[in-house]
Write a structure and sequence with these properties.
2 copies of one chain form a homodimer.
Chain A: H1 3-10, H2 14-21, H3 28-41, H4 47-54, E1 59-64, H5 70-85, E2 89-94, H6 99-110, E3 116-119, H7 126-134, E4 139-142, E5 150-154, H8 156-169, E6 175-180, H9 185-200, E7 208-213, H10 217-230, E8 236-239, H11 242-254, E9 264-269, H12 273-276, E10 282-286, H13 288-303, E11 312-315, E12 317-320
Parallel strand pairs in A: 1-2, 1-3, 3-4, 4-5, 5-11, 6-7, 6-8, 8-9, 9-10
Antiparallel strand pairs in A: 10-12
Helix pairs in contact in A: 1-2, 1-3, 5-13, 8-9, 10-11
């Protein structure tokens, strides 16, 4: 069954069938005739042919750092809700925390396989900035500020300040931060926020230590063990993400120290892990799902040519006081 | 820049450039000439046009029950590893636990947007079976047996038996199961395995209770609270999935009962949650990531027309004895 045959059966011209399939104007009567034939014959138009005609793929490419991380899945859930409703499909680029794989996916998506891109970078790099600068496909970045591009960001500086304040108010003396070892706009903000609060409260520099670590639970575990063996007097720890904090909390417990009696731990994120561990994690809730929704809505506007001005949307956050301070 | 211009610059025919772009035979010399022109001009062939010519999309559609569930993401990670290496892209269908959305995605994928499908159903239904029976696109199902179709399954019966044995060996008397309320092949197997072991050990029927619940942490929490208020003498609980078990463990604790002193809890899955909660969960490790790898490899063979016989690949499992028995 092809367009010519449908046209013949419906008693209309080939051009009319083509307009019908491409959502162009067709009179009510002819529309009904074509629909009847299509329903009866079970004809399905070739998606590829339609893509070629309309120069639209109705696909959005998403490049995310790791499909197994809770926050990326939350964002993904938010995006798919918005995009699915508008008839867009998601082409998934799982970068597995590799910068080269990120660029590879961006490159593939650029070559007209998608109408738009949502990019959650592992971190900042000049290469990525340059790539985005040259990109003509609409693109929204999440969790990172890329100059000249539309971004949905978290308020890492202010959130870090708030969580650090909790430690100070608890009267702690020896401060440590487990930071993510990434060249990342947010990471820098978190460290700045942490340092600023401690400095404002007159905590001396030799009572502050910042260690970098990888992103997983086991990374947090190892980093915390090392930190406490090097500096057992630490009694306040600010961790850059829940996933890392889960490892850190386990390490503290395995070393026979009590949370929060001996050591206070705070974190950023409030993924589902935060409420599952014991004691429950005091952390800042980031609106991950909502950030996915925002990014998708921004992208939709861009793909429709409505709002092409680069914007930075900063998400709010919420301090959730549970049991670790 | 188009094919004609490239042909002119490279001093070859248009047909030769076309063969080059579609991986057909081109002499070494001409290949070099075309490559030089393409590299110099930065020409990227239209993906849509290539799809239309080759009738291949190099895309695989994945329909999964919920992007936020750990096991689905593990499977997704396994699939993307295998498929990305072969140059396939993943089109993501997030069904959000809705049967109608599952069918919607399958329907979209069928209309030649993808070369193959991996389907992780929320459960069994005749409608889905019928849909698959009529499907001509290669498809592999995970976690469910669909008659006549290639499936990667888990050994739910045997795993349920093994976990229930642990409860019996601990000398428990009042048994409960938190089952998933889905019409699902695996769910039936789990219940059968649970019942069979208890019957073999002469546990009377009135000491056995099976309750159905939803899939989330809060579902498990509520179901467990209700169960214990209805039948406080319960001392052994078999939960159908880690996610539900996390809620159940929290409910037991909130009711002031101790695990494992007062109540033993076992589960199925061994997602990352199992090791994070306290006490750590005794559960059966399902090879989720590996099942994604297996499914992708089966699908690759089918898409290449190599092995079209329907197969059922049953994954093994591993009993992980932690702290809840």
């Amino acid at each position: 069954m092809n367009i010519n045959e449908i046209a013949k059966l419906a008693g209309v011209s080939r051009a009319t069938v083509s307009r019908y399939l491409n959502d162009g104007y067709v009179s009510q009567e002819k529309r009904q005739a074509i629909k009847t034939v299509i329903d009866a014959t079970g004809y399905t138009p070739s998606v590829q042919a339609k893509m070629l005609r309309t120069n639209k793929t109705m696909q959005v490419g998403i490049v995310l750092p790791e499909i197994r991380s809770d926050f990326a899945c939350e964002m993904g859930d938010g995006m798919t809700s918005v995009l699915a409703e508008k008839g867009y499909y998601i082409l998934l680029g799982n970068a597995k925390n590799s910068t080269s794989r990120e660029l590879e996916y961006l490159n593939i998506f650029r070559n007209n396989r998608v109408d738009g891109i949502i990019f959650i970078p592992t971190g900042y790099s000049e290469e990525k900035q340059k790539f985005l600068d040259q990109l003509t496909t609409p693109c929204v970045v999440i969790g990172q500020q890329m100059k000249g591009h539309s971004c949905v960001c978290f308020d890492d500086y202010e959130a870090a300040r708030n969580m650090t304040e909790l430690l100070v108010r608890r009267g702690r003396r020896q401060y440590a931060m487990l930071a993510v070892s990434r060249s990342n706009w947010g990471v820098k903000q978190e460290q700045d926020g942490f340092r600023a609060v401690l400095s404002e409260h007159g905590i001396p520099d030799d009572h502050i230590i910042i260690t970098e670590t990888g992103y997983g639970i086991s990374d947090g575990y190892q980093a915390m063990r090392q930190l406490l063996s090097r500096k057992p007097e630490i009694d306040a720890v600010f961790v850059a993400a829940d996933e890392i904090a889960v490892g850190a909390v386990n390490a503290v417990r395995d070393l026979g120290r009590r949370i929060p009696e001996d050591i206070s731990v705070v974190s950023l994120g409030d993924t589902k892990l935060a409420e599952i561990i014991s004691p429950k994690l005091t952390t800042a809730r980031y609106f991950y799902r909502e950030s996915g929704v925002e990014a998708a809505e921004m992208l939709l506007e861009m793909m429709e040519g409505k709002n092409l001005t680069a914007r930075v949307r900063k998400m709010g956050f919420e301090v959730i006081c549970r049991e670790t301070v």
